[in-house]
Amino acid sequence: MTRRRLLGTAGASGLVLGAAGGAVGYAARPAEATPLTSLGAGEVMFHGKHQPGILQRLQARGHLVAFDLKPGVGRREAAALLRRWSETARRLMAGEGARQDDTAVARDAGPSSLTITFGFGHGFFARTGLEKQRPVSLDPLPDFSSDRLDKARSDGDLWVQIGADDALVAFHALRAIQRDAGLAASVRWQMNGFNRSPGATASPMTARNLMGQMDGTRNPKPSEADFNERIFVPDSGAKDPAWMANGSYAVVRRIRMLLDDWERLGLKEQEDVVGRRKSDGAPLSGGSEKTAMDLDKTDAAGNLVVPINAHARITRPDQNGGAAMLRRPFSFHDGIDGDGVPDAGLLFICWQADPLRAFVPVQRKLDRGDALSEYVRHEASGLFAVPGGAARGEYVGQALLEG
After folding, report:
1. Which residue segment(s) compose the domain that 5 sits in?
2. Domain Dyp-type peroxidase C-terminal: where (predicted)?
């Protein structure tokens, strides 16, 4: 019986699961209990064509964690690890306990739209003797002039993305995944993020980042005819190995925002840097958030309304050969340093069928003259191959590890 079913049933008799009935130890509420709120009841399916955590809306809490395989661990042990992880993800996303010795951190909570996503880094393939199955698209990203990368917080053999609308549900999943790693893998780095909670605004709207700007206005949408070919690897193709069918490539960047410098700017200066109004995300050329930006519009003095180096101008797909990425980030705040400067910014995560045709050309162009680059610092980076979703009875990556 799942947490959701236990907690969502009014008039429960106070049944407590004993050791024989399920050692996770979840208990139903007393008779006066009310059903779960919509926030806790949200459930995402683990099995499917694509892995969860890509197409779903942004969640309120997130954890990113990368692992390195331990010395002596090979393909067989890696397969056992992905099998364990997939079963744990399936159970937790359904609102169940992780296993017999579940920590009960998420006791009383429903699934809370939990998603757990798994990916493979460049080094995974050499460690497991699968170099011939490593995709060309997983070649290391080039160096960018704006990079100030901490190698200890970059890359990794395995990558896990966790998102949920409840902080305890997200943490519970993080601990379960870490414990499942056992003797097979150790944590290389881990980062925590957050977004605005669902229901915090009068109606659903584009998220805001810590600079106060709307973030993700021009995200490609599943309703667009070319969405799948831009975001997901096709079922068959010459470039990617068969095991990547219906998968995607995730670029992960820890981008520190220099908030003290940013907040010294006036509103007009901030809007000129971005190219959009801060109040509603509309382009400076006019209209609403979804209005197409008029790149040629000028003011009375003949100056471009959207500055030539505005971030929104430079990143437009039609200014980058149609390159498009699905942005699905989290904000982060990791404290305040001794000088009173916040260590805060964006855990940038973007999804694409081919990073060499999407992320790389856009980032190169940003390198050459983005007005926003003066106020951000890229401190960590990773690229991961995220295979398609697992069918029922299968685990993520099975086609690679058992093919």
Report:
1. 1-35
2. 206-390
Residue 180 CB contacts under 8 Å (≥ 6 apart), including other chains: 81, 84, 85, 88, 98
The answer to whether residues 25 and 107 belong to one domain is: no
Pair 27, 126 in one domain = no
DSSP state of 100: T
Catalytic one among 68, 102, 215, 354?
Answer: 215
Same domain, 1 and 103: no
For residue 352 the two structure tokens come to: 């694409």
**24 and 44 together in one domain:** no
Non-local CB neighbours of 271 within 8 Å, separated by 6+ positions: 277, 278, 284
Closest to 192 (Cα-Cα) out of 65, 89, 93: 65
- Tell whether 259 and 198 lie within a shared domain: yes
Reported confidence tier of residue 34, pLDDT bands at 50, 70, 90: low
27 and 40 inside one domain: no
Structure tokens at 333: 């705040």
Looking at the fold, whether 23 and 95 belong to one and the same domain comes out as no
Minimal CA–CA distance to 250: which of 161, 387, 383? Answer: 383
pLDDT, averaged across the chain: 90
CA-wise closest residue to 364 among 137, 146, 138:
146
Q: Among this protein's residues, is 215 annotated catalytic?
A: yes
Q: How many angstroms separate the CA atoms of 12 and 158, rounded? A: 42
Q: What is the pTM of this model?
A: 0.90
Task: Find the helix or strand (DSSP H, E) in which 262 lies.
Answer: helix 259-263
Residue 23 is encoded by which pair of tokens?
A: 């050692």
Q: What is the pLDDT of residues 360-397, one digit of tens each?
A: 999 999 999 899 999 999 999 999 999 999 999 999 99
Region at 14 (left for phi over 0; alpha for psi -120 to 50; beta for the rest): left
In this structure, the answer to whether residues 25 and 110 fall within a common structural domain is no
What pLDDT does 12 receive? 36
Secondary structure of 116-155 as H, E, C letters: EEEEECHHHHHHCCCHHHCCHHHCCCCCCCCECCCHHHCC
The total number of structural domains that make up the chain = 2
